[in-house]
Design a protein that fits this description.
Hypothetical protein af1432; mainly alpha
Length: 270
């Protein structure tokens, strides 16, 4: 980010928007920054990253965030935590691209609201790697030792609470826009927009395991039902998204899920 600030004359708001969309933690900080400066006269929530960025402006963005330390500096003593953060960020970006595709197929009134919500979906997990890397690593090790264990069970065993529960609590404590909280709340799982967020995050979480993950058939079926197509068509749409996202792998340095596509033979696709 400091390199971008040094080239401020050559940077426009689209470059900053691209950076933010690839960084869920920065996305969260941007939302919190605007909310912390909210005027009493503002009665409408701002619920997308692009609109927030337009309100803050290029110079305002660099003034507020250019002094942030890179993860590699913050976690210099915990290299496994740096990789853990990057893996979650890579997965979150894939989720956002899937959510964008679902919203487009559904002709959603504001797809950017869904992609913003999806990017924020994993911030509790990222924050755990940043603020408590030992605990985050303990959860990761527990899941590695027990391949069939559900992530939420490992989280409860280590933290006494799931990361999703922690995330919802943080959203309320930070007083983030009600719509963002609503889209991430499983109590409203029957609503199409909430289902869009849930399906996108579930697909990304299963895809990073492998294209053979046992949860994927249900994901493809759920997506197909939501957008009015077949599981086969849903699979091919996800395949197309995965290939597109693979072209941006250098943002994180994490092998993209598309790298495992060669293993997905006709016998194991929907």
């Amino acid at each position: 980010m400091r390199e971008m600030k040094d080239k401020l004359d050559d940077i426009d708001i689209r470059d900053i928007a691209t950076l933010i969309r690839h960084d869920p933690l920065l996305s969260l900080r941007l939302v919190r920054y605007l909310e912390s400066r909210r005027h009493n006269s503002q009665i409408t929530d701002v619920t997308t990253l692009d609109r927030i960025l337009l309100m803050i402006g290029t110079s305002g963005f660099f003034h507020a965030f250019s002094h942030s330390q890179p993860l590699e500096v913050q976690l210099a003593d915990y290299p496994e935590a740096v990789e853990g953060c990057k893996r979650v960020c890579s997965r979150a970006y894939l989720s956002a691209r899937i959510a964008e595709a679902i919203a487009t197929k559904r002709h959603d009134l504001d797809p950017a609201e869904l992609t913003t919500a999806v990017l924020l979906h994993n911030t509790a997990e990222i924050l755990l790697w940043v603020e408590a890397p030992t605990l985050a690593n303990e959860i990761a090790s527990l899941l590695k030792r027990n391949p069939g264990m559900r992530s939420r069970d490992a989280q409860k065993q280590v933290l006494g609470i799931t990361l999703h529960e922690l995330h919802l609590g943080l959203l309320q404590a930070w007083r983030l826009p009600k719509l963002m909280q609503h889209l991430l709340d499983e109590r409203f799982a029957n609503e199409p927009r909430v289902r869009s967020v849930s399906i996108a995050t579930s697909l990304a979480r299963h895809l990073v395991n492998s294209w053979f993950d046992p949860g994927l058939p249900d994901d493809f079926l759920n997506m197909a039902n939501l957008i009015g197509t077949t599981p086969e068509a849903a699979y091919h749409l996800i395949q197309k998204i995965a290939l597109a996202v693979a072209g941006e792998w250098e943002w994180y340095g994490i092998p993209p899920v598309a790298a495992m596509l060669a293993q997905a033979t006709p016998e194991n696709v929907p």
